[in-house]
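Hey, does this match?
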Amino acid sequence: MINILIDLLSSAAILVGIIALTGLVLQKKTTTNILEGTIKTIVGFLVFTAGTELAVKTLDSFQKIFGEGFGLEGVLPLAEAITALAQERFATVVALIMGLGFIANLIVARITRFKYIFLTGQHNLYMAALLTIILKATGANNVTTVVVGSIVLGLSAAIFPAIAQPTMRKVTGGDDIALGHYVSIGYALSGWLGSKVGSPEESTEDLKLPSWLSIFKDYVISVGLTVVILFYISAFAAGQSFVEEQSGGMNWLVFPLIEGLTFAGALYIVITGVRMFLGEIVAAFTGISERLIPNAKPALDVPVTFPYAPTATIVGFISAYIGGLLSMGIFYILKLPVIIPVAVPYFFIGATAGVFGNARGGWKGAIVGSFVVGILIAVGPALVYPIMGTVGLKGTAFPETDFNLIGLLVYYISKFISFLFG
C-alpha cells in the first residue's frame, strides 16, 4: 500500500490532478464535474509529457548539427522547450510549485494592494519550471525549492501585471483586465519609450501592411517554417556525411524537413496538453478567487491586446525580429552562444510590445519599443543560459524578460545567502 501511495504522489500528473480536484471540491461542484475536471487535468498533463519527450529528442538533433556546422552552441529561446526539459528532470517539483504558487498568488492578492489573479496558466507553469531550474542550480533540495519557488511565483503573479497596467489602461481604455504575461518589464518599457519618441495620435492603425504577414499568427506554421529553415542552414553547414550519421540513414536533405516539422508537432502537443490541464485548474480556482478577493482583476494572456491595434502587432513583430537578428549577429561575432530569434516568441512578444508602444507613441513608439524588446529577449537568455547548463539543460532558454530577471535575482541572492551561512 505504501509503495502504491508513493508511486501515485511521485507522479506529476497525479499531483496536478489533485490540485484540480481540491479546487473543484471547494467550489462544491457536482460529482460529475469533479470527475470530469480531474480526469481531463491528468490526461492533459500526460499529453504534455508525451510532447516534451518528442521535443527533447528533436532539439538534441538540432544542437548536434548546429554545433558541427558552426562550431558554436545554438540556443532556441522557447519557453515551451525549456519547460519540456525541466519537466523531464524535475516533473514533481515543477507541478508542486505551479499549484502552490497559484494559491500564493491568491493570498498575496487578498492581503496586499496587488489585486491581480494571474490566469495565463501556461506562463505560471513556465515560471515554475524556471524557478525549479534556478534553485536546483544553487544546490537547493526539493523542499526548499518548492517552498521558495511557490512564494516567488505567488509574488510575481500578483506584482508583474501591476507593472504593465498603466499602459494596459491606455491600450484597453479601461481598468477591468490586466496582462498576465511574464514580459511585463518589456511591455512597460515599450510603452515608456513610445511616449518619448512619438504620439498616440499617429497610430499604426492608419498604416497599410501586406496581408501575408498574418501567417505568423498561426503557431504551427510559424514554428514549422522557422525551425525547418534553421535545420537546413545547419545541415548545409555541417555537411552531408555528418547529417546522415545523425539521421540514422535518412537522406540528408529530407532529415531537416522531417525534424523541423516534428519539432513543430511536438510543441503543438505540448501546448494542447498544457491548455487541457491548465484550463481545468484555472476554472477550479477562478470561482474561489472571485469570492475571496474583492476588486480582483484577471491577468490574461497577450492575445487580449491584439484586437485593440491589429496593425501594431505586425509592426511590433517585424521590428522585434530585426532586433533579434541584430543580436544574433553580435553574439556570433563575439563567439558567444547564439540566441536564435525563433518566430513564435518574437511574434507574440514583439506584437504585444508593438501594441504597448503604439498606445503611447503611435507607429514610432511601436517600432522603437518593440525593437528594444527584441534585443532584450535575446540578451536575457544569453545571461541566464550558463546557469541552466549547470543542471544539464542545454539548447534552449526562456526569452521572457521577467523570467530572466527573476532567474538572475533568485540565483545570485541564493548564492550570496549560501556564502554567508554556508
